[in-house]
User: What shape does this take?
Amino acid sequence: MLKHEFITQLKRALAYLPESERLDILEDYEEHFRIGTADGRAEEEIASALGDPRTLGKEFTARLCVRKAEESPSAGGIGRAVLATVGLGLFNLFVVLFPFIFLIMMLGMILVTGFSLMCAGPFLIGYAVLELIGVILVRMPVHPLAGFFFGLGLTCSGLLFMALDAWLTKILYRIGIRYLHWNIAVISGREEI
Amino acid sequence: MIGSVSLPSLKTVIMWLFVLTVLFFGIGWGITLIDSDQHTRTSYEKHIPLRVSADGIEQSALSLIIESGTLNLSCGIPGDLISGDIQTSVNRNGPVQAHEIKNGSSIFSLTQEKPGVGNLFVDDDRWNLGIDPTIPVSLDIRSGTGDVRIDSGPLNLTFLGVRSGAGDVFIDLTRCHARHLPVTIEAGLGDTILLLPEHSTIAADTEVGLGDAEVSGLEGSDGKYYYGSQSPDDPVISLSVKSGIGDLSIRRGL
Assistant: This one.
């Protein structure tokens, strides 16, 4: 592969990167070719030593997405970072995407549980109050005053679940970003497993 | 910091919520324990006696509609068209009765009360009823959720219809002596068990959606079964059973 073809393919693979970032990377690789040819090496040899430009493009894109997700945490940011990392190899489907989906589902379940408990609490409180003042004649299985406190407990436990979910999300987000950095480094051969 | 108000950290919020949760549940449990020493609320039960005289009734069409609860039906006392006891865990007046008698024919219906406003708790009535065995009775039962158990004994049934939403259906007709008895059963979710008299002519048409069908003492296959009695005096039973989800068991004799 000649320099022109390499640079064209790399440029195409870096299409999702911001202009300045893309130009910097392309400049670096052109520099590699300039130094290599000055040393008397053939363009094909240099291109072969640099690697596949499409794979390089994917790595740069993944690295940028992870960095962005780290700098400004958001659900969309981490989603894009995960997808970009998954694009680096089929293996990442099992070690990145599936664990990510599992964690999302786990956090979602905790959130739904918390929300349900939080909503159930006021119902029980209202019911207990109505029974206490004699509006509802149907008896609760427990004393209405106990029902009132159980309702408060349910609301607090629901809020507790939701707060724990937020705390867990923050921790898992940080761990996830570190893991993605490590994963990209391992795939690009810069770090040993 | 929002304006001059500083928000507590997430860890502080979690800690306070944990303390409050334990505290409120603790108070609730405490009150429940103290309350249970005074009277047992969970075993609250109301018994409603039921007795409808059979005076002047030569035949009857009975309709029993129970949304939620268990129905135990058996042979009652001669002289009482229907009698028994209704146990309810809900403080209400009991089922709604409607009774009309014309020229010796009576139409009687017993319908479970509608749940009161704000009734979050499931009614769990138990209807333990008996029917006068001397009066020819056409019996129609509709059950929402809960088991239906019928021990016909020597009841003088002219028709038996059971529609059950969710719950087991158990019908013992082994002592049935009706001349001809059409039986229609539609069960949504739950097992259905039918015991039929040993000496009787039986034609059964069955449909089972999801579940096993076990038929013993009858001949046939693919949902159509038959047994012909040797004696013309034996009862003739025409059976139609539709079961949605659940096993179906039909046995002739014991």
